[in-house]
Amino acid sequence: MRATSVQNTPVQPAQPQPDQVPNWQPLNDFAERKQQDSGLKAWIAVVEGCIKAIEKTAWQGREIADQAITACKAVTRGASAVNEEMQLLADEARRWPARLKRLTKTGWMLTKVVTSYRLWGTRAAFLPGSMRDAALANLHKRNAKRFRDTSLEQGGAFLKIGQLLSSRPDLLPQAWVDELAVLQDQASPVAFADIAAVLEQEFNQPLDTLFAHVDPQPLAAASIGQVHRARLHDGREVAVKVQRPGLDEVVELDMTLLKVFMDAVKSALPPMDIDTIVNEIQRTVREELDYQREARVMTDIGRQLAAIPGIRVPTLVPECSSRHVLTTEFIQGEKLTLTLDRLKTSDPARVSALLSTLLDAWFCQVLHGGLFHADPHPGNIMITPDNTLVLLDFGCAQALTDDARRGYFRVLQACIVGDETVIADTLTALGFVTRSGDPATLLAFVSAVLDQVRDAIINPDQQAGWPSPEAMMQQVSELLGQLEHDPVQTLPGDFIMLARVFGTLGGLFLHYQPNVDVATLVLGYLTRPLDGPTTAHTTSQAA
């Protein structure tokens, strides 16, 4: 189907309304059509091609553009070509009821979001600047709500995708980040009967043979799994994380829908390496489904942190763990932010000590061990009554190669001494590539960053206090402005996770404003020898 066919071919009246899910019936002649482009990606490409032609027409005259918009709306609401494509996809998915249900709900929502943004280029042609900005803000909010509601309804891997996207203000408009933020603590628990069925199926034993007791009320419920307190027959108290049933059947469909969606809207997003970001999200979700990998990561990171006083990792119970079940010792404690909120005014020195230990733990993982917990949000960090920090949930983790670890090590060393050329060269070697490929762009960016890094690490002005959120955003905006005309288009995948980690930790530091000697922590690792392989090799090979 050509983009110009919208203007030359009459379109039949639309059948379904835009907020309804069409009742696609499978075609009998699917075998004869197997050579045609099929699936959601091909269909979006068809619609996108139509609307690109309409955008061009819009600037040539209001009357012609209005006619084109009418034609395009008919296409997006159910013209025959669209229905044929979706019928083919529905026919393929009929064998998997869970996939089909997810496809019709999630796929239709993504279709409406993509189409609304593609139509925006046409509508914006006739709006003055102030109205255009307000209308676009409303469009962002409306589409973000659509995505949020579908994430909550579908749950599982798609909810996890929404949670990951909510932590990417560099990728999405602020309206999206605000709407998706509610997903961080939103996951309905699975009925205990379904959890018991998973446990019995995983170990091929009755539940009362596996455990002396399992509390039917979950301690926590998340997008991928939920945790129950239990007691073994030898008397040990344990925490049992059980994966939600049915995720294996739908996760790959969710990954495909995410890729198609981001490909379709990337032109409306800031210039950056969208493919790497999407690949990292897909990798993260897939790895979080493998509890055996999580068990290995948890054990390795526990060994890394054993030398740091005041922090611990739960001990694995291997005989009660599998690919879909992870059992560890139970540790009593409360959520990190609950303790910090209580101590912020009454004992600020203790707040500073706790956050200093937390930062030390992540410097150790990244610079010394080469394997790090990549999701340090407050729900994954507890504090015990004896002031020990406990790290939880190692499903999202990143292993650095020795070359990458050494590269980031050199970047920090060069920041300390102010060697801009070494920083730019090392970033290029790590995989940072701008649109032009000119290393001078990275050099200019590094120069802009360097003063702030030095202030934070070497010359922190404790009297001046921490910057306000508004000042921090202004600094970020100025730094990004250095790359406005030659943006970074390729990023190393591990940097995405590093940015997420230190962005999250930075948010905690900005909120609680501790008195932490960052320079001493950093220099303590930069003066250690960098010899021998890291644990990253062991874990990545085992995974």
Share of helix, binned: 55-70%
Oligomer: single chain
Question: In terms of per-residue confidence, which ranges show pLDDT below 50 for 5 or more consecutive residues?
Answer: 1-40, 50-82, 92-96, 461-465, 535-543
Q: Could you tell me how far the N terminus lies from the C terminus, measured between alpha carbons in angstroms?
A: 44 Å
Radius of gyration from CA coordinates? 26 Å
Percent strand equals: 5-15%
Instruction: Tell me the structural class.
Output: alpha+beta
- Overall pLDDT confidence: 74
Spatial shape: globular
Number of strands: 13
Biggest β-sheet description: 5 strands, antiparallel
List descriptors.
543 residues; 8% strand; five-stranded antiparallel sheet; 22 helices; four-stranded mixed sheet; alpha+beta
Your description of this structure?
The protein is of the alpha+beta class and 543 residues long. Among the domains are: 1-126; 333-543, no CATH class. Helix content is 59%, strand content 8%. The chain contains 22 helices and 13 strands. It has helices at residues 5-8, 40-58, 62-78, 80-93, 97-123, 129-154, 156-166, 174-180, 192-203, 207-210, 247-265, 274-288, 291-305, 336-346, 348-369, 402-417, 420-430, 439-457, 469-481, 493-512, 518-526, 535-542, and strands at residues 213-214, 220-221, 225-231, 237-243, 311-312, 325-329, 334-335, 371-373, 381-383, 389-391, 397-399, 433-434, 488-490. Strands 1, 2, 3, 4 and 6 form a five-stranded antiparallel sheet that branches. Strand 2 (220-221) and strand 3 form a beta hairpin. Helix 2 (40-58) packs parallel to helix 5 (97-123), helix 7 packs across helix 8 and helix 12 (274-288) packs across helix 20. The two termini are 44 Å apart. The model is unreliable at 1-40, 50-82, 92-96, 461-465 and 535-543 (pLDDT under 50).
